[in-house]
Amino acid sequence: MQFGFDVPTQGPLANPENTVRMAKRGEELGYGYLYFSDHIVYPRTVDSPYPYSPGKKLPGAENYLEQLTLISHLAAHTSQVKLLTSVMVVPYRPAVFTAKILSTIDILSKGRLVLGAGAGWMKEEFQAVGAEDFHKRGKVTNEYLRAFKELWTSPDPSFDGDYVQFSDLAFEPKPVQKPHPPIWIGGESPAAVRRAATLGDGWYPISYSQSFPIVTPTEMKSRLAELDAEARKAGRDASRLTITYHAGVYDAKLGEVKENGRRKQFTGSPQQVLGDLKSYQDIGVDNIFFIYAGADADQICDTAEHFMDKVGSKI
């Protein structure tokens, strides 16, 4: 099992000094992945429901670093850790242009890019960046992903879809990773599970979805059975998919937290947290990611070190 944590693209910690420091420290500590969220602009008025908070409202931030640019920058400051878009909102950027950026990052990082891909949730941001119709975002996402694969793998790429068309062009150089950078499908909805089963190299759900929560190993096991069924329908083998579970916030100073009379997973002693990790490992989860609590880069790095020393290194 490998671990990853969030390097912020927004807010007061999203600056060159902090992001480089966290990325370097994560690599030194032996983390397998660093991940980066995706917003391009944040409209000041947002009515779209945010899927991952109880009130379905996400506090916005004025400052956002562009996800793919930041990953490219940090690729130059690291050498081993994998760099994950978590997730890239696929419809936000034109398909051919995005495929070229992602291919370039994979080349510059010497094969360390992982494409976490999602369809998005904020209608207002879709409108602001000039993306395709928000209500067609699932179809757009599927088509763009197929176009990426065509560009990354074919010596003479061509594509004739509803949203992407190209032919008679050279797309070189290809990504370092073969056949292409891994595509992990983010999301917990039935549509996301189908997308992972049919188009993905992995599935990447978040534990604290308000509509489709996955907060216990039992719930995760049930969802993995759904993934397996969808993969079988598509003639694919779900056992070949990488399964990554975003477990939410980890705070080493918090101690044991009770929810509905039970201990909240990934809280308590290092032994209890280790038991939680093993429960997910036993059902086929390959990676577990966290947001590390901390008001500044020092605190986040300290939490990352504490987790790896007391828990992560024991599994």
Order of helices and strands: EHEHEEHEHHEEEHEHEEEHEH
Mean pLDDT: 96
For the record, the CATH architecture stands as Alpha-Beta Barrel
Q: Which value, in Å, is the CA radius of gyration?
A: 19 Å
Strand order of the largest sheet: 1-2-3-5-8-9-10-13
- The dominant shape is globular
Count of runs of 4 or more consecutive helical residues: 9
- Provide the low-confidence segments as ranges: none
Biggest pleated sheet: 8 strands, parallel, barrel
Computed structural class = alpha/beta
> How many E strands?
13
CATH topology name, in short, is TIM Barrel
Q: Roughly what percent helix? A: 25-40%
Which CATH class is shown? Alpha Beta
* Range of strand content: 15-25%
Ends: how far apart?
7 Å
Count of separate structural domains: 1
CATH superfamily, please?
Answer: Luciferase-like domain
